[in-house]
């Protein structure tokens, strides 16, 4: 009987998820989500021959967290710009 092998793309998703939170935000977050979903599909289709679903899930979650942080940051930045333009226009 063969021992289950770890799915390489699950580990890649985990690494991308960590990078997305530590350094490169959405540039690694979106790939972490995509690669993690592919890894989960491969693991589920392997009938137990591949492991690492928790790694893939962790990468997906961290990817979504980094995307959410980037979206909130963009909304805040746009809000501050609009507020700044409004304040500049009212003080003329």
Give me the count of strands: 2
Quaternary organization: single chain
Fraction in beta strands: under 5%
N-to-C series of helices and strands:
EHHEH
Our measurement of the CA-to-CA distance between the termini, rounded to an integer number of angstroms, reads 80 Å
Question: Uncertain segments of ≥5 residues (pLDDT<50)?
Answer: none
**Main sheet: strand order:** 1-2
Count of helical regions: 3
Radius of gyration: 19 Å
Largest sheet: 2 strands, parallel
Shape: rod-shaped
Q: Supply the helix-strand structural class.
A: mainly alpha
* Share of helix, binned: over 70%
Mean pLDDT value: 92
Tell me what the structure shows.
By secondary structure, the protein is mainly α. The chain has a domain at 5-67. The chain contains 3 helices and 2 strands; from the N terminus they run E-H-H-E-H. Helix 1 (8-24) runs antiparallel to helix 2, helix 1 packs parallel to helix 3 and helix 2 packs antiparallel against helix 3 (53-90). The longest helix has 38 residues, at 53-90. The radius of gyration is 19 Å and the shape is rod-shaped. The mean pLDDT is 92.
Strand and helix layout:
Elements: E1 5-6, H1 8-24, H2 26-45, E2 50-51, H3 53-90
Parallel strand pairs: 1-2
Give a quick precis of the structure:
The protein is mainly alpha-helical and 92 residues long.
List keywords for this structure.
92 residues; mainly alpha; two-stranded parallel sheet; 82% helix; 4% strand
